[in-house]
Amino acid sequence: MTAAPLDGIRVLDLSRSFPGAYCTLLLAQMGADVVKIDLASDYSHDLKKMLAAANGAGLVYICNPNNPTASITPAKELSDFLARLSPATIVLVDEAYHHYVESKDYESVIPLVKDYPNLIVARTFSKIYGMAGLRCGYCVTQTANISRMRTHQIFDSVNIMALVAALASLRDVDQVTRGRKLNSEVKKNICAELDTLGLSYIPSHANFMMIDLRREVRPVIDGMRNRGVEVGRLFPALPTFMRVTIGTGMEMKQFLSAFREVMA
Predict the structure, then answer these.
(1) In whole angstroms, what separates CA 40 from the centre of its chain?
(2) Of 42, 53, 135, 143, whose CA is between 20 and 30 Å from 169?
(3) What values do phi and psi take at 143, rounded to 5?
């Protein structure tokens, strides 16, 4: 089975702060007209502008927490957005980093699926479950949407190994709690070190963060690689920011050592 074309479908993408997003590229290749909206000044989704631009859109895509900014859009704003949006427009909320959020302003929109036939929520085992290479995920939505999506399903998209690993992860009752705790502890230590260095960063609600180097990022990325530390790629919409994944305590010590050398 191959994915059906999307000719004539208008898709409202999350923001210009996520250039070259795989989903945007794929949609464009399938014939969709992709419209991009900038993030707000606090790096949350500018839902007022998205609502204004969504007139006639077939789908609105919202990543919450967002990638690559690790920012969140508050639950109240999202619920108001859903209430005001046309029921004819599908809303896809990507909650890949949901498990890492500790803010009281954030809530999953999965409970709202029962009230909104146009809402689809995507989750993945690639983040807190550590299964990125196996490409396994799922969505939560009403039955009618599942039927519509089957016509676009890629044949054999999830393999047996991924399914077995996903089930094993769900049976590990401590996986999420342990992963969230370790991520939070290490991230706090990194933030404290960055504060000491006088560097600013976008408050992170995920397992990565965006650090403002106040300089061109590419030479720093190359310098880190030369010291055996791989960080995120360059994001042209955020030219002075470096994306850093939160690893183990030991890994982040190695990161900080190389980072101080390169920044010096």
Answers:
(1) 16
(2) 143
(3) -55, -40
Closest to 127 in 3D by CA, of 94, 163, 165, 100 = 100
CB 103 within 8 A of CB 75: no
Is 33 exposed, middle or buried, given 0-12, 13-18 or 19+ CB atoms closer than 10 A? middle
Q: Which pTM was predicted?
A: 0.88
The residue type found at 156 is: D
- Contact yes or no for 30/6 (Cβ under 8 A): yes
Q: Are residues 119 and 85 in the same domain?
A: yes
pLDDT at position 33? 82
CA 116, distance to chain mean position in Å, is: 22
Q: How far apart are CA 160 and CA 214, in angstroms?
A: 46
Closest CA to 140 of 93, 76, 81: 93
Look at the chain and count its residues: 264
Q: How many domains does the chain have?
A: 2
Q: Are residues 79 and 198 in the same domain?
A: no
Task: Please report the pLDDT score of residue 167 as a whole number.
Answer: 94
Q: Is residue 3 part of a domain?
A: no
- Of 4, 49, 44, 50, which Cα lies nearest the Cα of 27? 4
Do 183 and 256 reside in the same domain of the chain?
yes
Q: What stretch of H or E contains 124?
A: strand 119-124
* Burial tier of 75 (Cβ tally within 10 Å: 0-12, 13-18, 19+): middle
**3 state SS of 2:** coil
Q: How far is Cα of residue 169 from the mean position of the Cα atoms in its chain? A: 21
Domain of residue 146 covers 10-171
Q: To which H or E segment does residue 209 belong?
A: strand 208-212
